[in-house]
Please model this.
Amino acid sequence: MQGVNTSGREAVGESLEAQHELLSGVAEALDGRGRIAFRRVKIHVDARRITLSGRVRSFYLKQLAQHVTASVEGVWAVDNHLVVESRV
Model:
């Protein structure tokens, strides 16, 4: 997972292994949509709730990140705290 920042894991309500698998799934899904576009996205896993934070270049990329994350098997909820900046 080189393209997406996967720091920030917390074991709450699920095993650490299960959360790591979920984190990896989300990171791979985002990498598949654009490694450069999502290079400043941080992923935090709390049970099956995913929080996205960081910066993206457009509102479209913010929405795409949320949609891609929500489509990963095992994700129950997505909190999208991505900030749109035209110069990232």
Remarks:
- The first strand starts at residue 9 and ends at 10.
